[in-house]
Hints:
Its main location: nucleus. Helices cover 35% and strands 15% of the residues. It is α/β, with parallel strands linked by helices. The chain is globular and about 90 Å long. Bound molecules: adenosine-5'-triphosphate (ATP).
Amino acid sequence: MENFMSQGSSSHQNAQAGPSSRPAKSTPSKRPREESKPVKREEDVNPPLPEMDEHLVTFRTDVVGVQYYRGLVGKGEYVILRREPQNKFDPNAVQVINASGNQVGHIPRAVAGKLAELMDHALISVEGRMVGQNLDGAKHYKMGMDLSIYAKPSLKEVLQPELAWALNETQVKPPPPTAHISISGVKGHGNSGTGLPSEDEKTMKKLLEGLTQVGGDQKHADTVMDSLTSDIDVSKLPLHPDPPGIANGQLSTDILPHQSQALKWMIDRENPQLPQTVSDKQVQFWIKQKGNHKDYFLNVATRTPQYDPPTLGRGGIIVDGMGLGKTLLMLSLVLATKKDQGSGNFGNATLIVCPLSVLSNWEKQIGDHISQGQMTHYTYHGASKSVTAKTLEKYDVIITTYNAIAAEAPIDLSGPKSPMKATQAKKAKVSTSAGPLFKVKWKRIVADEGHILRNPKAKMTQGFAMLQAEKRWICTGTPIVNSPSDLGSLLTCLQICKPLDQPEYFKTLLLRPLKRGDPVAARLLQALVGEVLLRRTKDSRDKQGKKLIALPSIEYFRVGVKLDEETRNVYDEVFEGSRQRFQQAMETGQGTANVLSMLTRMRQLCLSAQLVPQSFLDDLRRPIPKASVGPAISISSLTPEKKEDLIAKLRHYVEEDTECGVCYDETEFTKRPCITDCGHAFCYPCIERVLLTAPLCPMDRHPIGLPSILELPPDEVPEYNDPLDSSQAKTLLPVKSAKIDELVKYLKVFPGDEKTLVFSQFTSFLDQVALRLKEEGMSWTRFDGRMNATKRQQVISEFQRPLTPKNAASSPKVMLISLKSGAVGLNLTAASNVFLCDPWWQSAIEAQAIDRVHRMGQKKEVRVFQLIAEDTIESAVLDIQKRKDAVVAKAFEKSSKESKMTKKEARFEDLKELLGVK
Ligand SMILES: Nc1ncnc2c1ncn2[C@@H]1O[C@H](COP(=O)(O)OP(=O)(O)OP(=O)(O)O)[C@@H](O)[C@H]1O
């Protein structure tokens, strides 16, 4: 089976996480735990990203029974091979389907018999590439086809005996680069005429490298997007001739030129026109071609010809940077098209789907900018969900959350596995078990913070894809976070650029060739981006070279804080203990995960010694545990008290945003946290994978199995309680903290009309800040990710109210906010000072925090203060941040060793640097 093994893994995605293997990729940091919390099963919200499959074998076979079907195919065209278990002549049947979704025939019964079971269990994926064709009008019974088999690298060995027969078939080379794709006619949406894609090979190479590197953070995502959109000049887009505004009475605020350009672009995209003549430019990859008898349409991406006019998608992706005013843009689109009659039986209502944390922002912006009586809206959330579809469709705008979509979607996740199948199942299922959101025929649906839909297996993604809508939009800052497959999932939700909206085609035409380093696929991706996406950043300029929005300047200050003697002593002890354990872990090759929890403790020590529990210090002072032997202990055999203890410990880890000891990712951890009987916490999917290779806890090598693992009860979503109001207030004693002293010092000298945001990752620290501000008689408020929508709205509007001499005493001057509270999307422009109390690895999270203040609506100069405990890991973290930013900046340089690391490898290097271990 030489060729199975000779293909070698080159993917950065094909990770099988385990103590000594690569982790699954990280998720975006943009909306950390916010979205995951309220939904019960987190694997549904964001199951682990799939391992990318690898080519195993390609052999020549046929498409048979062609005479019975009407699907046309050309030579070199890619086709989908889909199982048809309900076929009454052969339950193993595999259909061959062309890009228009028409069946061409079947694969031979003998081949199908060998593949069916493997396909049914999703152990392999298969694709076909036509050798024959049936475009010539002649009668065909069968046509040659090359069939390629792919599988996850981790399954290669298991599959070898199962697929040995395939090597006896006529072997052919794996699919070549997608050289047949001719996309040179694709134009970007600028008027410059430069067009897409760039033919510059160097740029293409860089792009490819960027696309296959480990991503997962905002900066990497931005760099990839910069590259993909580099040829598109958005500054010259035409303005809308008559946008909603003050003059026509629809808005109380005029939209800005960049919003007007986007509005026109969106209306054009909602009404795409197929090319009428051969000289018309292509639309969603379709061009008109001269035929012998009759002109036909040709899809230049798939080479699919057809006489029937293809269906075009209506909508696209808006990738405007933070604070560029996407909310008002979307509302303007609703107003500008209010009188347009939808086609078919689609109604007139627009559905906005957003995370709970920005629900109130939509309501507020409607209140702030839309003139009285111009737009009816309804928030479909919580108790207000007890209305019928008939009521919903009467409004212009319905605002709801992703969780409502997930809850109402008529999908059984054990049923349809992909959004595509879900879409197919739509007609059959929608009327029976669906909630009201799925019964309305929407004029338009909009996914705000739409990167949430990048996981095709998540119920909210499948649900969004199933909504019945004429037009579909996604707003997101990061359409590609981890890999281009993110974009594939968004296309499926948008049902645009068919057949690339089908996962199989996206994989065949883009993902696999990109993985092979095929520059044509990179160009196709660029062209796709040019077709469906409009992107501007805060740094984009208009025709005159001016920034799109003029913002006041921003100044950064690093404030060094000295630890008091007592804290310094404890800090040094914890540092030394961590260093020794890390050193030992490196020497013995055993897990380093326990060092991570020590890092968290060191970071807490930088805030206050009293934030660290005594039990941690006691543990640290005990000798380093040795690997234990014996049978794994099942959770069910533990006493209820011990179980409750573990749950409490896990809850504490979640509150602290601890990182998973396997993937080293705190955002993954909060999605599906679990704890072992020995008290160590991981993401569930990570530990599950570890157990496949070694039944030992990665932290202490204690024998464990799946029954030794405990998860948080699914409805364990504690509501936010103000610690100063609740019974806890009695037990909350003030602690010593040099950082709080420093913060208060500044707050006291700020001018009376200035407001301040205080960010920390540790809620327990924010509790302490609150306590101190109370003592000092300063007015403050608190924003927490666990607050319900009403409370959030109340807190934000209270804080956003400008200070006047009258309300100066009662109005909050300070807002305490968790760095990961899901504050993305919030407007907190009433503040002009920002305190970042604890630095962390990803400077992008801090940038997002600062963006709450430094955005449209900000009138004052903004000051950002970073509180850094001197001579601690905090300063080292800053150095790492700086280096990482530089790495991201040169992320497309092949020589960059670090840019090729997995997150785990990179974090391991960080640990070495932080602890001074060689
Ligand atoms: N044309 C305009 N004139 C004045 N203010 C505007 C205009 N458009 C938007 N704004 C204001 O700009 C601020 C930012 O807008 P918005 O929240 O829509 O940004 P966004 O692009 O959605 O950002 P994010 O990605 O962070 O959610 C809001 O306070 C909004 O009211």
